[in-house]
Amino acid sequence: MPGLDRVQTLWQLFLAGGFLMWPIAAMSLIVATFGIERLMALRRGRFVPPGFRDGIAALTKGGSFDPRAAGKLCEQFPSAAASVVKAMLKKIGRPVPEIEQAAEITKDREASLLYANIRPIGLAVSVTPLLGLLGTVQGMILAFYTTANLDAGANRAAELAQGIYVALITTFAGLCVAIPAAMIAHYLEGRILGGFRAVDDVVDSVLPSLERYEGKGRVNPGVAAAPPPPVPPGQPKLTGAARP
Predict the structure, then answer these.
(1) What distances in angstroms separate CA 170 from CA 13, 22, 35, 124, 181, one per listed residue?
(2) Does residue 156 lie within any of the structural domains?
């Protein structure tokens, strides 16, 4: 059967490539595993869920921004944008540069988490061609050594060609893994950059609403204001500056 013969030929080529074909195959599994995982993890809702975007737009519309409602919205839609907005809400009342710095620090931390599982793919892009080149150099050494030690009258050209043919298998295999890996890594990095552009849009919409609270005291977005303590009977109430 032609299909079976082809499979047998590919398997024979794999075995002829030597032991370095095994780490190349392992790298291909790493690329496939982390590529699929990142494709599933980097969906649009991981950055700015539609419900969160619409909720923030409603809160910032008309100048009636409620920090506590925004905090509840962050808890309801956990995402990169929610983490950044939550960090900004914790700085309410502080100068605007501090709020912007908190947003940048949180974005960097979220980006680092999202990039973490792309690094093994980048490692495969760098290492796999080197493994293939190493296998080829090893095969060339063996081919020339075998050719140099052939008996008199042997077909040296044919033996050398056979050795070089086998030696180039690892380079071919390494490039077959590295090229798709580079394309996958580039695509995933593009999705992360696009996602954080959407996060920046949310930050830009929230920041003007937080500027109104600058210097007015901090508001805990997750806790309602505590009622004043009861006044004992017969004791006058303290108000304004007279209250301790």
Answers:
(1) 9, 10, 23, 15, 17
(2) yes
Secondary structure letter of residue 127 according to DSSP: H
Nearest 10 degrees: Cα torsion 232, 233, 239, 242: -70
Q: How many CB atoms lie within 10 A of CB 20?
A: 20
Look at residue 223 and tell me if it is in a domain. Answer: no
The tokens describing 110, both together, are 């979220």
**Residue 82: exposure state from Cβ atoms within 10 A (0-12, 13-18, ≥19):** buried
pLDDT in tens, 103-161: 999 999 999 998 988 999 999 999 999 999 998 888 888 878 777 777 766 667 777 77
What are the tokens at 237?
């109430």
Which tens digits make up the pLDDT trace of 147-206? 777 776 666 777 777 778 778 888 999 999 999 999 999 999 999 998 999 999 988 888
Residue 187 lies in a domain: yes
User: How remote is the C-alpha of 12 from its chain's centroid?
Assistant: 37
**How many domains are there within the chain?**
1
Residue 242 lies in a domain: no
The whole-angstrom separation of Cα 131 and Cα 243 is: 75
